[in-house]
Amino acid sequence: MSDKKRPRAVQTVASPRFLPGVLLLFVGSGCAALIYEVVWFQLMQLVIGASAVSLGVLLATFMGGMCAGSLLLSRVVSPDRHPLGVYARLEFGIGAFGILVLFALPALGNLYVANVGHGFGAILFRAGLCAVCLLPPTVLMGATLPAIARWVETTPQGVSWLGFFYGGNIAGAVFGCLFAGFYLLRVYDMSTATYVAVSINAAVAAIALLLARRTPYAPAVIDGKAPAALVHAEWPTYGAIALSGTAALGAEVVWTRVLSLLLGGTVYTFSIITGVFLAGLGMGSTAGAWVARTTKRPGLLLAWSQVGVVVSVAWAALLLNREFPFWPIDPALAAGPWFNFQIDLLRAALAILPAASFWGASFPLALAAVASRDQDAGRVVGRVYAANTIGAIAGALAFSLLLIPGLGTQDAQRWMIGLSAMAAVVMLVWTSPADAPLGATRRIGAIAAAIVLAMIAATSVAPVPADLIAYGRQIATFKGATFLYTGEGLNSSIAVSEAEGGVRNFHVSGKVEASTEVHDMRLQRLLGHMSALMHPRPRSVLIVGFGAGVTAGSFVLHPSVERIVICEIEPLIPRMVAPFFSKENYDVVHDPRVEIVYDDARHYILTTREKFDVITSDPIHPWVKGAASLYTRDYFDLVKAHLNPGGVVTQWVPLYQSTEEVVKSEVATFFDVFPYGTIWSNQYANGGGYDVVMLAKPEPLTIDPGALQARLDRPDHARIAQALNEVDFRGVPGLMAAYGGQGRDLRPWLVDAQINRDRNLRLQYLAGMANNIYDNRIYQDMLAYWRFPEEMLTGSPEWKERLRREMAPGHPPAEDAGPVVR
Fold it and tell me: Given a cut of 50, is residue 713 above it in pLDDT?
């Protein structure tokens, strides 16, 4: 339809007394939308992986749908329809698609798994799956604000109400984010969370329909086409609000990276950061909507809001990089996790709220800058919203995939300042149609001031401290390390340090992931050599996570191994970290048998058709957001399906920074899939342990100690025996002394354990609450069920009698096994 045949604007006949009720509807709509977003992102990551590329595709699809919906509403839906009726149908549609995604995704996931490969084609396939799942509901979400905009006039008061609706929607989103992250998913599961969101949509839609029946709506078409000069004058505002969106989403990416170092990368940290960011947007939008009622220069205020962002980003950088890391806070001293959450919330709010508030104010000010009486309110809102969303998509992708891995967070924050200053200059150079005239001298002075302020702000941004990258939330308790390398990669920030005595540590995102310290070396070699020795002739091996390469490097020594596949999500680690541990990992990255796959490990196992003799995992902390998907029953089923006959699987379980409830969940979930599983402890000299390894085969495990010792005594296993001796696993007796129990014996201990599944990811919520707790009694509680594994051992009676004496565990006092912080 041509512009001459379409109405140029719509005036509505609406009662102002109903507008506060509509505001409450938008609160409910925003709450449901964020619950869906949390659930859908979690569901989709299980299928397409959690790498930066996958998350970028996922986020771009989600926001792209919102953008498309905001633009399409005014083109597809006639202005003759009652806005509240349209809004109600959109809410009903969102709820319907919410249920459909929950049940249809498994089928689409099977199609994806059957056809996906690696490389650019795989990325396109991931994008296609995201589009099929997320575009229909997100298009409807993006259309809700433009739909209701037709119920108000494009006067200052009407535009102000649109700003209030936007702010109310964000307020609901804050509640939905925290409600989902701290309650629904922690206590229930993704299905329950979805049903709650659907119920909210249904309630909002029903109330909207009731209001539509009680409020008459009479569209009045205003003839005439807006002057071309007026249309062209709107484009600077669209450009400015797009730049604002780019900087805002870039900031969320950067601040999430830095704050997760400081607060710990748990699911709760991400909920706090998102909730605070949205709260800032909501407060700013409310303030901007209020100002838009009376201001004569909304475009000028939009410019100064971007200048406010410049100052606020510099303020956030000051706190995050220079102040917060050195606050004397030891999270382990808190009486419980909720005390730490309060401190985390305070620090996030101090850093994020100022800039987020200015970004929030930008939207209603941009609406006021382009609105006039001769326009369709739905079209005005749709264009401004679309411009902002397009900028947000660009910001999320550019900062996460290019700027942070290419330049680091320091320069990324400078880019945020530059983009905000550019948005301010755009609005100062090109006057908004709604603005009162501004003198040339004042305009030039304001532009110069904005540029100078941005330059000062950019030079004040400091880099992330190396200690923060290394020790994260434990930075106050560690001092004196010499840093050999620090870097910020695509998915993680990493560091290599050397402590007194020459011990080297590999750090990932604020935690020690591997080291040359004796207990860490014991663990890494136990994961590698025990896995290989429990198989008669291992030929193919899959290792989840590279770490320092010690676990993977252990397999290099085994003569029968022909293929070693390592899945690593962060490309920087094998390239930059491995050389610092080349002696300990036997230069594994250059071994011709090794293939390194840079992808989410779960996604690789889900999509590969290859099977392996051994599947093991380098230590991956279960409290880190996303790691719980590597401890689910569904994941272990995948692992089992990718084992060759007689194959061996091992999985690490930390007993520190954990609770008995968390460990029980990890162990019970593993034994639910591998009922013949066993426990092997990385012991202290006094018999205590601070982490364990779960080892299993699909069938019952049998060990002939005499044959195993003969294997270690062979010349082609001499280096293996030496590597084990170096970490006090001396021969078969040393290895068997690490035995800590098996599945059937631990059943009474596991009777109340919660099984971790894809649909609930219970572990990430349990472990996230426990990551500052050190309980030394867990291993002793497990040993209470220990018995000599008579049926597991075959071979000579002499070996059995010897092992009966040497395997019996001691029971040292709990205080002798002090906590180990990694």
Answer: yes
Nearest partner of 512 among 495, 525, 500, judged by Cα: 495
Confidence of residue 222 (pLDDT cuts 50, 70, 90): very low
**Is 0.85 surpassed by the pTM of this model?**
yes
Structure tokens at 818: 């002090």
C-alpha dist (Å) from residue 524 to 519, 581, 652: 9, 13, 10
Tokens representing residue 790 in the block: 């008579």
Nearest to 171 by CA among 41, 360, 43: 360
Q: Are 63 and 393 in contact (CB under 8 A)?
A: yes
Closest by CA to 679, choosing from 655, 704, 699, is 655
Q: Is 11 helix (H, G, I), strand (E, B) or coil?
A: strand
What does each C-alpha distance from 317 to 264, 308, 473, 509, 692 come to in angstroms?
Answer: 18, 14, 17, 18, 40
Query: How far is Cα 429 from Cα 446, in angstroms, rounded to an integer?
Result: 10
Q: 10 Å Cβ neighbour count for 500?
A: 8
Cross-strand pairs, 651: 694
d(CA 367, CA 156): 9
* Backbone angle region of 6, left / alpha / beta, with phi > 0 → left and psi within -120 to 50 → alpha: beta
- Measured from the Cβ of residue 382, the count of other Cβ atoms closer than 10 Å reads 26
Q: How far is CA 604 from CA 554, 608, 757, in A?
A: 22, 6, 19
Handedness of CA 248, 249, 250, 256 (dihedral sign): positive
> Rounded to whole angstroms, how far apart are CA atoms 432 and 370?
7
Q: Which two tokens stand for residue 654?
A: 């930390």
Length of the chain equals 822
Label the pairing between strands 612-617 and 540-544: parallel
Alpha-carbon gap, residue 691 to 683, rounded angstroms: 8
Residues 450 and 311: beta-carbon distance below 8 Å: no
Instruction: State the Cα torsion 143-146-148-149 to the nearest 10°.
Output: 180
Q: What is the DSSP letter of 78?
A: -
> What is residue 644's predicted lDDT score, i.e. its pLDDT?
97
Residue 667 has pLDDT above 60, yes or no: yes
CB-based contacts of 372, cutoff 8 Å, min separation 6: 154, 226, 230, 433, 434
Residue type, 52: A
pLDDT in tens, 745-759: 999 999 999 999 999
In this structure, what token pair is assigned to residue 577?
Answer: 């970290």
**8 Å CB contact between 115 and 246:** no
Helix (H, G, I), strand (E, B) or coil at 715: helix
Cβ atoms of residues 148 and 165 within 8 Å = yes
Amino acid code (one letter) for 348 = A
